[in-house]
Amino acid sequence: MAINRKTNKLPGRRAAGLLATALMLAAAAPAMGSACLGMQVHAHRGAASAPENSLSALRAAYEAGADGVETDLQMLGDQRWVVHHDLNTGRVVQAGAPRPVRQLASADWSAARMKLRGVLTDEAPPFAVDLADLAADYPQQTLNAEIKDLAPCGQVQALVGQLRSAMGHGNWFMTSGAAGNLRCARQADSAGYLGLVVFDGRNAEAAGANGLTRLIASKAKAPKLDQAWLARVKQDIGMPVGVHVDARTLDANPALLSDAALMKMPVFVYAVDGDAALAAALQRSRQHSGRWPSGVIVDESAAGFCARLR
Questions:
Q1: Which stretch of DSSP H or E encloses residue 44?
Q2: 20 to 30 A Cα–Cα from 162, which one of 79, 228, 251, 270?
């Protein structure tokens, strides 16, 4: 949904509603013969040829023809939103000694530089406003923006306003692993699609291998995503809403795609173990339910991933 800067009206509300409707229709019907078996294919943090979540990586993914681009948002200490995955700097963004993103100010972020596979580049990490301006130039492709950690409700609502102001086409949606973030977003946008990212504790080491994450992973059980759970998500967040799950979670819940289709809830799937693991899980799920998910989030090209499934 978007506010037109000149008229202050809401031309993007219709576009956001159409996006939500399209996702729900895709959830309700078995995928047929569209570009990738009816699934949207979103590029995970942009193209691999540039630093992850950099403007150059995201632009390259758009230009390569992905249906959408998946990226991550966090808030600095001075409450400006930035594009970054890890809770700490150091792996991708060099901003002095590694520290929590929330301890940085805007000036720190502007002075930082990004890394590509450990090598420092000249590219500065983007702010959310830079991301929105980029996505505004690609109205036919979806921006899939995940809030990485729990944020104050007012700041989440301000982010919704910032994104819809910049993207008049309305072709974007927000996700988060924190349901509280999505409840706040729903208050600011009654019609837009929201996605709940489901944490699977068995993948805890993906956040960083250490004693604690290994312990969590060894003790964790797969989350149970049955119809009763889906109904609670609908009630808690409000429609249109869907779920975004790891391939291992999908394997552990073989009825998920069918149950979600009955409830008109989209399902997006990714894999911390990589695209080959994702493709294998989707094929197993297809054999069980006769369905593909609404969308996937992949590291390789859309064409390369879809070729795995044919």
A1: strand 40-44
A2: 270
Chain segment 273-298, per-residue pLDDT in tens: 999 999 999 999 999 999 999 999 99
Place of tokens 């596979």: 117
- In the structure, what pLDDT confidence band is assigned to residue 68 with cuts at 50, 70 and 90? very high
CA distance 46 to 40: 15
- DSSP character at residue 118: T
The Cα–Cα gap between 253 and 246 comes to 11
Percent of the chain with pLDDT over 70: 92
Q: Where are the alpha helices (DSSP H) in 68-221?
A: 106-111, 128-136, 153-166, 179-188, 211-219
- Distance CA(291)–CA(301), nearest Å, equals 22
Long-range contacts of 107-111 (CB under 8 A, 24+ apart): 108/76, 109/76, 109/80, 109/82
Length of the chain: 310
- Tokens found for residue 84: 């970054």
The tokens for 182 are 């999505």
β-pairing verdict for 267-270 and 241-246: parallel
Token pair of 61 as six digits: 């993914």
The answer to whether 194 and 241 have CB atoms below 8 angstroms apart is yes
Residues in a beta bridge with 146: 72, 175
pLDDT for the residue numbered 34:
57
For residue 3, how many other CB atoms are within 10 A of its CB?
18
User: Which of 15-19, 55-59, 280-284 is least confident?
Assistant: 15-19
Q: Is the pTM of this model over 0.85?
A: yes
Give every CB contact of residue 146 below 8 A, 6+ residues apart in sequence: 70, 71, 72, 73, 174, 175, 176, 177, 197
Cis amide linkage into residue 266, ω under 30° from 0:
no
pLDDT at 30: 55
